[in-house]
User: Fold Flagellar P-ring protein from Aeromonas lusitana.
Amino acid sequence: MNRLRLLALLCCCLPLGLAHASRIKDLTSVEGVRSNQLIGYGLVVGLPGTGEKNNAFTEQTFRTMLNNFGIKVPDNIKPKIKDVAPVAIHADLPAFSKPGQTIDVTVSAIGEAKSLRGGTLLQTFLKGLDGRVYAVAQGSLVVGGLGAEGADGSKVVVNTPTVGRIANGATVEREVPNSFSQGDTITFNLNRPDFTTARRVADVVNDLVGPNTAQALDATSIKVFAPRDPGQRVSYLSTIENLEVDAASEAAKIIVNSRTGTIVIGSQVKLRPAAISHGGLTVTIAENQQVSQPNPLAGGQTAITNNSTINVQQEPGRMFKLDTGATLDDLVRAVNQVGVAPGDLMAILEALQQAGAIQGQLVIL
Assistant:
């Protein structure tokens, strides 16, 4: 009995994974199996006067399009193109896409067009980084935005009216070659590199198929031997990617976003013994303007003087103590008792980091 038949028999006897386990397909991606970005340039027509005004490259594109249909516009005639807008088209070509299949495209105005609502994209080539055409796009746009402008210059804009999408708007014309069926191995790359998780993935595959079938190359890549026959390789990969693995716990981190005041503390974060004192200092400055009026017949001038009042209030400081091995719950509970604001909590965390009391990494965005 060869290894592939043994694999099929073992798959029927696999026990149900634990609730906290994850499938290999959720933790990894297969090397060489990826999408490719496509981009193109074209024209959207049929706009209700919300298109381009007077743009040289738009006029050039419009003339070129007419020339392709055998229509020659004299140089001394300037076409009115308020119902036309130049656009950039981009799409993602999924792996294993075949000629004749369709993909979604996004269309974005790149000129002075105010809205693409009601427009139709004319046939446009979508190219890859190698300059080759992989898809052809065309169709009516669906625009979720709306814009309206009054005669006095006031306007209302809802969402983005200069960006639209065409569902199944591009037809694939060329297949992107890949290395999936080449070689004797398949490489799985972890979405979040971790040495422990990589070793566990290799152990799970080896326990099922046999020793030395999988090998963790580093914190990201796990090399797995696989059959060369494409049909067998698909079945083999389908089995491997549905194996469940207990992913390793993430590294202890505290993420602080100073712009939004968001603070996320990982469950692995622990604190060394520390005493924290927190007190708030409030400074209030009030400006009052007074009028200084000269005496009669004094020859002076009325003047405005500023009277500043400065008031300083300091809240009584509070102190709390964290014992050895304090956890996330202990820290949150202590901070809530003090009642600090997000900005004050950031200062406390930075001070703890400087004091070496945090067993984890403090990341400030």
